[in-house]
């Protein structure tokens, strides 16, 4: 039974999508916002995603790019915007097909099975389905850690649905730590891979870490995401 993740914030539309897809033999999971969708895609593999572009937390285009950053799962976008340039943008951002609202259940099922037919013959881009898609030009992948989402491609970061205003260096630092989340990264490594300048000292890293902490709403004494491992380095984790 193919599994589909339905991402739609309107409860009645969500319910009717779930019903029509269940009736047609799909195992349906659902999410009401972009973060919920990213969490679902990260946690359990799914065969396809039906993604509403008008979501309350993330811009639909950002949500699509972030899904693309962590998974090669086929995405069928549902858009209220019947605007050619918008649709071209969505397809360029990695959607496999789109539907313009309002659409019938029959149209949804037909488009979805066509997308699944097309994509099931294509070998996954990653080592396994759902593996991160990385390209040479974009070595850091989009990452979701707890309520923090970082998209190096679009250079955007969100905390609990709110976009963070970061300086270039703060963003680079956060993206690097998020990419290596769960691992302790030494300051020496941050200097060589984020700063890439030979004459910067450890204190520069500390200064940027403390401003990054402030923007994440935490303190070194009471960290949530950025843990200092004394004498070793920094580790970005999901808060407990
Ligand atoms: Ca919506």
Automatic annotation (TrEMBL):
<feature type="DNA-binding region" description="OmpR/PhoB-type">
    <location>
        <begin position="140"/>
        <end position="238"/>
    </location>
</feature>
<keyword id="KW-0804">Transcription</keyword>
<keyword id="KW-0597">Phosphoprotein</keyword>
<dbReference type="InterPro" id="IPR039420">
    <property type="entry name" value="WalR-like"/>
</dbReference>
<dbReference type="InterPro" id="IPR011006">
    <property type="entry name" value="CheY-like_superfamily"/>
</dbReference>
<dbReference type="Pfam" id="PF00486">
    <property type="entry name" value="Trans_reg_C"/>
</dbReference>
<dbReference type="Pfam" id="PF00072">
    <property type="entry name" value="Response_reg"/>
</dbReference>
<dbReference type="InterPro" id="IPR036388">
    <property type="entry name" value="WH-like_DNA-bd_sf"/>
</dbReference>
<feature type="modified residue" description="4-aspartylphosphate">
    <location>
        <position position="52"/>
    </location>
</feature>
<feature type="domain" description="Response regulatory">
    <location>
        <begin position="3"/>
        <end position="116"/>
    </location>
</feature>
<dbReference type="InterPro" id="IPR001789">
    <property type="entry name" value="Sig_transdc_resp-reg_receiver"/>
</dbReference>
<dbReference type="InterPro" id="IPR001867">
    <property type="entry name" value="OmpR/PhoB-type_DNA-bd"/>
</dbReference>
<keyword id="KW-0238">DNA-binding</keyword>
<feature type="domain" description="OmpR/PhoB-type">
    <location>
        <begin position="140"/>
        <end position="238"/>
    </location>
</feature>
<keyword id="KW-0805">Transcription regulation</keyword>
<protein>
    <submittedName>
        <fullName>DNA-binding response regulator</fullName>
    </submittedName>
</protein>
<dbReference type="GO" id="GO:0003677">
    <property type="term" value="F:DNA binding"/>
</dbReference>
